[in-house]
Amino acid sequence: MIKVxxxxxxxxxxxxxxxxxxxxxxxxxxxCFREGKHVVSERLGLLNVDNRFIKVIxxxxxxxxxxxxxxxxxxKDMSFGAWFIDIGCAYDGTLMVRDATEFxxxxxxxxxxxxxxxxxxxxxxxxxxxxxxxxxxxxxxxxKIQGGKVISVTPSKVPRVIGKQGSMVSMIKDGTNCTIxxxxxxxxxxxxxNPDDELLAxxxxxxxxNESHIDGLTDKIKAFLEKKK
Amino acid sequence: MSYTKRFDNRKFDEMRKIEAKVDIxxxxxxxxxxxxxxxxxxxxxxxxxxxxxxxxxxxxxxILRCNYTMMPFSVSERIRPGPSRRSTxxxxxxxxxxxxxxxxxxxxxxxxxxxxxxxxANAGTRCAGICAASxxxxxxxxxxxxxxxxxxxxxxxDKIVIDLxxxxxxxxxxxxxIPVAMTGRNHEITLLQLDGEVTKEELMKGLEMAxxxxxxxxxxxxxxxxxxxxxxxxx
Lengths: 229, 235
What we know:
Chain A is an alpha+beta fold. Chain A has helices at residues 158-162, 167-176, 195-210, 217-228, and strands at 5-6, 13-14, 19-22, 27-28, 32-35, 38-41, 45-50, 53-58, 70-78, 82-86, 93-96, 119-127, 133-136, 143-144, 149-152, 178-182, 187-192. Chain A has 3 domains: 5-58, CATH 2.40.50.100; 70-144, CATH 2.40.50.140; 149-228, 2-Layer Sandwich (Ribosomal Protein S8, Chain: A, domain 1), CATH 3.30.1370. Chain A is 19% helix and 34% strand. In chain A, strands 9-10-11-13-12 form a 5-stranded mixed beta barrel. In chain A, helix 2 (167-176) packs antiparallel against helix 3 and helix 3 (195-210) runs antiparallel to helix 4. The longest helix of chain A is centred in the last third of the chain and has 16 residues, at 195-210. Chain A is flat. Helices cover 28% and strands 29% of the residues of chain B. In chain B, strand 6 and strand 7 form a beta hairpin. Chain B has helices at 85-98, 125-139, 166-169, 200-231, and strands spanning 18-22, 30-36, 39-50, 63-70, 110-120, 148-156, 159-162, 175-183, 189-192. Chain A binds chain B through residues 13, 15-19, 31, 33, 35, 40, 42-45, 58-62, 64, 89-92, 130-131, 212-215, and chain B through 23, 29-30, 47-50, 59, 62, 101, 103, 106-110, 138-147, 183-185, 218, 221-222, 225-226, 228-234.
């Protein structure tokens, strides 16, 4: 008898080439594909079964841009009507003049608004088939970064830095009196009243990144922040 | 004189001891180490990232660049660092052996760089390099239809053996070295080179041996990949 259905337990780790399901009962979505009667994984990640859809959530690798993500990037280039922002993936994000927070007059010098080396908090609005990424700085919390510093963590560790419902990042905010903006691409903006606070926040975030696999990390970071105060 | 017993007392169809480890280079997007006997290869994957100069770009799909290098101290007599005729060839066959399983259509105009370093060599370095690169690519999150494993088979004296070591490759009565790379599910051959003499029957026997070996290696690769995730997941 041919076995039909899911062959691998849900929430387990799959690797490329693993046969996830047999038969035509399930449909492949993100991170897997159909080959004859099989649904096969093409990513290293976590298996997720939603009704009849099979999805593999990637757990490693570089940042994959998604529509709606808040990202932090550096202005790398500009042309007549747009800035090109490095957001840490293979393609630069395009920020059109009309999507900028600031009003830009016709024929104005774009460098007066966002200059080379400036950092912006932006949101991805559109990704075309050819992987051009359109971003905007219009919206709550989106702007050019002034003051503070930007640090990088591995993109796959971003959910850990944010924590459940933002518990981790809000605890670090409270513990250090800094404003912290976490970009989904692994860039984090820290802005505090004095450099020591920023340094402490940086240390705490890097600690989260390095020890992301440890149980009870929230309590550990809490103790760390209290000790350093 | 016939070759009745292997120099290191292995069976004729027994590979050397294999070790695999993923996530060894923190700065890389994906990395892996593959060790078979005394041969050690490490691979690091960077990208997909933008590709320059622009004329190399392909607007339909991303390209794969492999770079195979032997470290100067990897062999008993120091080898000059930098590209050579041999390493250029191996870089090329490595990328050709990995491309059939990679899906780079989602990364137009971009490049995936694979750097393979042989830190210790005792025959079978291109196979170890391919095994390490395959794991590193999976770890870097590049869409892959399957894993690729490689092992060398060959003829030493009058015997068909798997996974030759340096001593066997230099066997005085002549040895034939056949590196083979295969995919996991469909057993498709993605690399086949041959250095020496062999009959058709011997080659088929060798390929069957290589198929078994590759399947064993793929299991080891998959286990190493799963373990790398588990370490980060507090299970």
